[in-house]
Request: fold
Amino acid sequence: MRPIANSRPIVRFHGVTRAYGSRLAVEDVSLTIHAGELALLVGPSGAGKTTLLKLINREIRPTSGQVWVDGTAAHELHASRVAELRRKVGVVFQDYKLLPRLTALENVAFGLQVSDLRVSDDEARERSRDALEAVGIGDRAHAFPHQLSGGQQQRVAVARAVVAQPPVLIADEPTGNLDQDTAWELMDLFEDIAAWGTAVLVATHNVDIVTRLQRRVLTLVQGRLVRDQPAGQTGRMAWLASS
Amino acid sequence: MAGVVVRGPFPPRRTWRTVAANVFRYLLQGAARSWARNLGGTAPALGSMTLLLLISGVVGVTGFALYNLEQVEAGQASLLHVYLRDDASADDIATLRNRLEADPRVAGVAYTSKDEALQRAKRIPGLPELTDSTDSNPFPASLDVQAKSIDDVAAIDASVRYDLAVDPVYPTSYDRGAYQRIQSLLFGLGVAGLAFLGLLGFVAVSVTMNSIKAAIHARRDEVRIMQLVGAPRWMVRGPFLIEGAITGGIAGLVAGAVTFGLTAAGITGGSSAFAQLAPGVTFTVAALAALSVLAAGLLLGSGSSLISIRRHMES
Reply:
């Protein structure tokens, strides 16, 4: 599935700058990610990829500019309303961040219930099981994280991120701890999630994934968005399409 | 892999019972479990807070007793005994009494005869032996003058001490500065007690804050996940607040029980001596002191946690 030109914009940056002291981590970035779109965020270490992701779920505020997430102005959101925004943003990390004393099913249900106290145990269990089956590890629902491989743990993390059906999913180096085959399986999963209407933004260093996936690629260098290659125009010859 | 299928909106089962069950599990049960798990780290906070509250309770009861004692002393200090010569004539005594009763600073005047003075002396501990050792009555008759204000006692004393009816050797019971000395002593004790409690309070709050900081650190992954999945702030912070309240509550409960026990033991075991040294301290006062200590523990524990949460947990 490819992003539809007139589909609903989910994430919008307008001239966003984020400074840490005198250093600009993100500088004058403007971009839009639509519903159902999978975009890859690339760039060298320190380019500002993580900062850009943190701006989306309002872990940090922009120094200037506007960040809109599914119609919510993240840039001016009061601290007391940040939780509302974060329910719209699923997050996946490189190190999975699963709770070791909970099973896979409980990890997913925990995320669901603490973000919405109206979700009953039955509902949480059922929806978590669905999410785990959807990411391909329904049979390991009762395993603890230490009993799962890295790829399986990352799938649990993805299930936790999407179980509440957020309109946007962000992933910070999700394949960083995985072998190449498992990384590809995970990217397949992200493609499937996007295909069902979620805007997915994945920050990655994995060149092979970027060149072969043929998805939209946003390139950050020293905080500036230096290239925005549309889907299908990536790969070794992509420079032909960029000025 | 086939497309991800996550169910559509779940059929509504949203009742207050579900919310209450989740709040109980994640907020109260979670806090209690975490508190029990971190008991080793909480023990110093629990100990210092118990000590602080116990001392506060004992100091509180003692302070109440001292306040009552001061009131008794103030009442006695504003009562001036004007001792009469044994050979004073009835006319001289009546003249003096009339003059005192006409004085606007005087609230009332009563006459105590030598016999009444003797009887009164016999009721004072230690004096019966003295009174029995002599055949004559050494206690003079007196006019007992109740001053309207304690500040007027000196002036009334000055106006009567050279009167014809008054004993020239030992004219009145007025002891310049006696009441002020008591007041100064009590004030000094109060300030020292408060300073000591303040210091102990600072230690208890600091130790509790550190234990909550350690609890936050121990559960940092859980906190981070809760924050990122959009758990409300009170849901993220609540368990730590409750952990602090549990620490303070247990410390308050122990300290309150000991305060009550010590006071009750004093009341039942000390009898009249306790009543004289700690006037007004009853079982009701002991129970109120214990409850106050418990409430102070809860406030101190949750307050310390709140400060620690604000300092050590990102919003």
Q: What stands out?
A: Chain A touches chain B through 46 residues (CB under 8 Å). The longest strand of chain A covers residues 9-20.
